[in-house]
Structures are given as structure tokens and as C-alpha cells.
Amino acid sequence: MWEKIIACDRKYDGLFYTAVKTTKIYCRPSCRSRKPKKTNVSFYLDINEVEQAGFRACKRCQPEVEHSPHIGLVRKTITFLVNHYKQQLVLQDIADHVGVSPYYLERLFKQETAETPRTYLEKIRVDKAAYLLISTDQTNLEICYEVGFQSPSNFYRVFRRLKSCSPSEYRDLDR
């Protein structure tokens, strides 16, 4: 268990808790706070057990909350992307909207979703394009610009990567 808290391994969150005797605080195994001395640490398998022992939850990793403490920021980012996918967006625009630095946003977003805000935005755009390909008679070029891509070559490349076929092939699959 000690090795897992030193590595800040997120896979063990919820399986056990680390309690520090000197501060009377308990954390998730993935907490990024400064690591205590090994002699001051106790391990608990149940959150109720650690709280009954008199420890309070860490304010940084929030072990008493079921989900990650950063889920609100990620949801706010996703909402912004869904509502503004047609616009030309750069990471700085998204970071400004959610109120954090671009580096911090990208790192947290990737940590929580396993992808960057840019790849998430590309998925939204490709999904909207796929819907338009099937439901409208617009040309591929019109759809490309409609969903927010700035160049047809990028649209075709991203579409092929995510859907394993070209936009024209995708349109033909539905017929």
C-alpha cells in the first residue's frame, strides 16, 4: 500500500485510505499532497472505519466524494465544447472560459477523460458531421465548415481516423 501512495496510483482509489496520525487527515492513494513519514501512516480499507478512528477528509483529494474532485471542471469544459464546437477554438479560449491555465486544463482533462480537449472537440465535430452526412444533402465541404473544421484536409483526416472511412463512404453506408 505504501508503494501505491508513493506512486499516486489512481487505480487504488476507493480500495483503501491513507491516514496520517500526526495531522489526523486521511487521503486517497492518488493524493498529490506531500507524503508523510511512513511511521506516521495507517491504512484503512473502509471510509467509515477511518472516520470513526477520528480522521477528517483531505481538502485536496476529497476522499469522501465518490467522484474525482476535478469532475466539475471537466463537465464545465465539455459543456463549453459542445456549445461552441462550430467556432475556431484554441486551448487558451477554453482555459479562459473555465478559469484555469491552458497547461493545467489539458493535464486535468486528460487525467479524467484519457484525452485532450482538442481530441474531445474533434470527436464532437465528427459526430455532428456524421449526423449531417446521413440526414442532409449538404456537400462534404459544406459540412466540414458547418461543424467547425477550418480546412477540408483536416476534416477528412480526422473523420477517417475516428470513423475508419471517408465522409463519402460513411454517407454511402447508410443508404
TrEMBL record:
What molecular function terms (GO) are annotated for this protein?
Answer: DNA-binding transcription factor activity; methyltransferase activity; sequence-specific DNA binding; zinc ion binding
Q: Which residues form the HTH araC/xylS-type domain?
A: 75-173
Q: Does the keyword Transcription apply?
A: yes
Keyword DNA-binding belongs to the record: yes
Cofactor dependency: Zn(2+)
GO biological process entries: DNA repair; methylation
- Tell me which UniProt keywords the record has, alphabetically: Activator, DNA-binding, Methyltransferase, Transcription, Transcription regulation, Transferase
Q: What Pfam families does the annotation carry?
A: Ada_Zn_binding, HTH_18
Which named protein is this?
Adenosine deaminase
Task: Report the source organism.
Answer: Cytobacillus solani
